[in-house]
Amino acid sequence: MSTFSYVAQSAFPLIWILVPAIGAFLRARHAPSRQEALEIWQRWWAIGAFGIGSLWMTVAFLTVPDAMAEVIGFGRTPFMVEIAFANLALAVMGFRAASASARERITIGLGGGMFLWGAAIGHVYQWFANGDHAPGNTGGVIVNDVLIPAVMIILAVRSRRLAAPLAHAS
Protein backbone atom coordinates (compact mmCIF):
# COMPACT_ATOMS: atom_id res chain seq x y z
CA MET A 1 0.00 0.00 0.00
CA SER A 2 1.38 3.40 -0.95
CA THR A 3 1.94 6.05 1.71
CA PHE A 4 -0.73 8.27 0.14
CA SER A 5 -3.28 5.43 0.13
CA TYR A 6 -2.50 4.57 3.75
CA VAL A 7 -2.84 8.20 4.90
CA ALA A 8 -6.07 8.66 2.92
CA GLN A 9 -7.64 5.49 4.34
CA SER A 10 -6.46 6.33 7.86
CA ALA A 11 -7.76 9.91 7.68
CA PHE A 12 -11.08 9.18 5.92
CA PRO A 13 -13.10 8.65 9.14
CA LEU A 14 -12.31 12.24 10.14
CA ILE A 15 -14.84 13.37 7.53
CA TRP A 16 -17.56 12.47 10.08
CA ILE A 17 -16.06 15.03 12.47
CA LEU A 18 -14.93 17.70 10.03
CA VAL A 19 -18.11 18.08 7.95
CA PRO A 20 -20.43 18.53 10.97
CA ALA A 21 -17.92 20.87 12.65
CA ILE A 22 -17.59 23.04 9.55
CA GLY A 23 -21.35 23.00 8.94
CA ALA A 24 -22.11 23.91 12.55
CA PHE A 25 -19.50 26.64 12.58
CA LEU A 26 -20.85 28.26 9.41
CA ARG A 27 -24.47 27.99 10.51
CA ALA A 28 -23.96 28.96 14.19
CA ARG A 29 -22.03 32.16 13.48
CA HIS A 30 -25.35 33.77 12.50
CA ALA A 31 -27.26 32.52 15.55
CA PRO A 32 -28.90 35.27 17.60
CA SER A 33 -27.83 33.76 20.95
CA ARG A 34 -25.20 31.48 22.45
CA GLN A 35 -27.92 29.00 23.35
CA GLU A 36 -29.16 28.83 19.74
CA ALA A 37 -25.59 28.47 18.50
CA LEU A 38 -25.05 25.60 20.92
CA GLU A 39 -28.27 23.94 19.72
CA ILE A 40 -27.05 24.20 16.12
CA TRP A 41 -23.77 22.56 17.10
CA GLN A 42 -25.58 19.75 18.90
CA ARG A 43 -27.86 19.02 15.95
CA TRP A 44 -25.04 19.05 13.40
CA TRP A 45 -22.99 16.78 15.65
CA ALA A 46 -25.88 14.40 16.36
CA ILE A 47 -26.90 14.03 12.72
CA GLY A 48 -23.50 14.27 11.01
CA ALA A 49 -20.96 12.74 13.36
CA PHE A 50 -23.12 10.32 15.30
CA GLY A 51 -25.96 9.55 12.86
CA ILE A 52 -24.53 9.61 9.36
CA GLY A 53 -21.06 8.48 10.45
CA SER A 54 -22.52 5.42 12.20
CA LEU A 55 -24.91 4.72 9.33
CA TRP A 56 -21.95 4.78 6.93
CA MET A 57 -20.19 2.18 9.09
CA THR A 58 -23.33 0.03 9.10
CA VAL A 59 -23.57 0.09 5.32
CA ALA A 60 -19.84 -0.51 4.88
CA PHE A 61 -19.73 -3.52 7.23
CA LEU A 62 -22.81 -5.07 5.61
CA THR A 63 -22.03 -4.40 1.92
CA VAL A 64 -18.23 -4.64 1.69
CA PRO A 65 -17.18 -6.82 4.63
CA ASP A 66 -14.02 -8.09 2.93
CA ALA A 67 -12.80 -4.53 2.30
CA MET A 68 -13.65 -3.53 5.88
CA ALA A 69 -11.78 -6.56 7.26
CA GLU A 70 -8.75 -5.61 5.19
CA VAL A 71 -8.79 -1.96 6.21
CA ILE A 72 -9.07 -2.94 9.89
CA GLY A 73 -6.29 -5.49 9.58
CA PHE A 74 -8.35 -8.53 10.61
CA GLY A 75 -9.74 -11.49 8.78
CA ARG A 76 -13.44 -11.50 8.03
CA THR A 77 -15.48 -12.79 10.98
CA PRO A 78 -19.18 -13.20 11.82
CA PHE A 79 -18.73 -10.45 14.42
CA MET A 80 -18.60 -7.90 11.63
CA VAL A 81 -22.37 -8.22 11.24
CA GLU A 82 -22.71 -7.50 14.95
CA ILE A 83 -20.50 -4.43 14.56
CA ALA A 84 -22.71 -3.30 11.68
CA PHE A 85 -25.84 -3.51 13.81
CA ALA A 86 -24.14 -1.88 16.80
CA ASN A 87 -23.35 1.01 14.45
CA LEU A 88 -26.96 1.03 13.29
CA ALA A 89 -28.01 1.47 16.92
CA LEU A 90 -25.58 4.41 17.20
CA ALA A 91 -27.04 5.91 14.01
CA VAL A 92 -30.58 5.68 15.38
CA MET A 93 -29.44 7.27 18.65
CA GLY A 94 -27.64 10.01 16.74
CA PHE A 95 -30.69 10.85 14.65
CA ARG A 96 -32.83 10.81 17.81
CA ALA A 97 -30.38 13.16 19.54
CA ALA A 98 -31.07 15.83 16.92
CA SER A 99 -34.40 16.58 18.59
CA ALA A 100 -33.62 15.38 22.12
CA SER A 101 -33.28 17.28 25.36
CA ALA A 102 -29.83 17.96 26.78
CA ARG A 103 -30.37 15.21 29.35
CA GLU A 104 -31.23 12.70 26.61
CA ARG A 105 -28.19 13.80 24.61
CA ILE A 106 -25.96 13.14 27.61
CA THR A 107 -27.44 9.66 27.89
CA ILE A 108 -27.04 9.05 24.15
CA GLY A 109 -23.43 10.24 24.32
CA LEU A 110 -22.71 7.95 27.27
CA GLY A 111 -24.41 4.99 25.58
CA GLY A 112 -22.50 5.54 22.36
CA GLY A 113 -19.34 6.12 24.34
CA MET A 114 -19.54 2.70 25.96
CA PHE A 115 -19.30 1.08 22.54
CA LEU A 116 -16.96 3.57 20.87
CA TRP A 117 -14.56 4.04 23.79
CA GLY A 118 -14.38 0.26 24.11
CA ALA A 119 -13.61 0.08 20.39
CA ALA A 120 -10.88 2.72 20.82
CA ILE A 121 -9.31 0.66 23.61
CA GLY A 122 -9.47 -2.38 21.33
CA HIS A 123 -7.81 -0.49 18.48
CA VAL A 124 -4.98 0.73 20.71
CA TYR A 125 -4.53 -2.75 22.17
CA GLN A 126 -4.32 -4.32 18.70
CA TRP A 127 -1.91 -1.58 17.65
CA PHE A 128 0.55 -2.20 20.47
CA ALA A 129 -0.01 -5.88 21.34
CA ASN A 130 -0.20 -7.20 17.79
CA GLY A 131 1.38 -4.48 15.66
CA ASP A 132 -1.88 -3.82 13.78
CA HIS A 133 -1.09 -0.58 11.96
CA ALA A 134 -3.85 -1.03 9.37
CA PRO A 135 -5.43 2.30 8.40
CA GLY A 136 -8.80 1.26 9.86
CA ASN A 137 -7.24 0.37 13.20
CA THR A 138 -5.15 3.47 13.84
CA GLY A 139 -5.48 7.14 13.04
CA GLY A 140 -8.85 8.70 12.28
CA VAL A 141 -10.95 5.83 13.60
CA ILE A 142 -9.46 6.22 17.10
CA VAL A 143 -10.03 9.98 17.01
CA ASN A 144 -13.68 9.40 16.01
CA ASP A 145 -14.24 6.70 18.62
CA VAL A 146 -13.03 9.02 21.37
CA LEU A 147 -14.37 12.39 20.22
CA ILE A 148 -17.82 11.66 18.80
CA PRO A 149 -19.44 10.66 22.11
CA ALA A 150 -17.24 12.98 24.18
CA VAL A 151 -18.20 16.06 22.17
CA MET A 152 -21.88 15.12 22.31
CA ILE A 153 -21.67 14.88 26.10
CA ILE A 154 -19.71 18.13 26.44
CA LEU A 155 -22.14 20.04 24.21
CA ALA A 156 -25.16 18.66 26.10
CA VAL A 157 -23.65 19.48 29.51
CA ARG A 158 -22.88 23.00 28.30
CA SER A 159 -26.45 23.31 27.02
CA ARG A 160 -27.86 22.31 30.42
CA ARG A 161 -25.64 24.83 32.17
CA LEU A 162 -26.66 27.63 29.80
CA ALA A 163 -30.34 26.78 30.27
CA ALA A 164 -30.11 26.56 34.09
CA PRO A 165 -29.87 30.34 34.75
CA LEU A 166 -32.77 30.91 32.33
CA ALA A 167 -34.92 28.40 34.22
CA HIS A 168 -34.17 30.11 37.56
CA ALA A 169 -34.94 33.56 36.14
CA SER A 170 -38.50 32.57 35.20
The average pLDDT score comes to 94
Number of helices: 7
Report the biggest beta sheet as strand number plus sense, adding barrel if it closes: none
Write the element-wise H/E pattern from the N-terminal end onward: HHHHHHH
What's the total count of β strands?
0
What structural class is derived from the secondary structure elements? mainly alpha
Distance between the termini: 62 Å
Low-confidence stretches: none
Work out the helicity level: over 70%
> What percentage of the residues does DSSP assign to strands (E)?
under 5%
- Globally, the shape reads elongated
Rounded Rg: 17 Å
Description:
- The chain is mainly α and 170 residues long.
- 82% of the residues lie in helices and 0% in strands.
- The chain is built from seven helices and no strands.
- The chain has helices spanning 3-11, 15-28, 34-63, 65-72, 79-97, 102-130, 140-169.
- Helix 2 (15-28) runs antiparallel to helix 3, helix 3 (34-63) runs antiparallel to helix 7 and helix 5 (79-97) packs antiparallel against helix 6.
- The radius of gyration is 17 Å and the shape is elongated.
- The N and C termini lie far apart (62 Å).
- The mean pLDDT is 94.
What's the arrangement of secondary structure elements?
Blueprint: H1 3-11, H2 15-28, H3 34-63, H4 65-72, H5 79-97, H6 102-130, H7 140-169
Helix pairs in contact: 2-3, 3-4, 3-5, 3-7, 5-6, 6-7
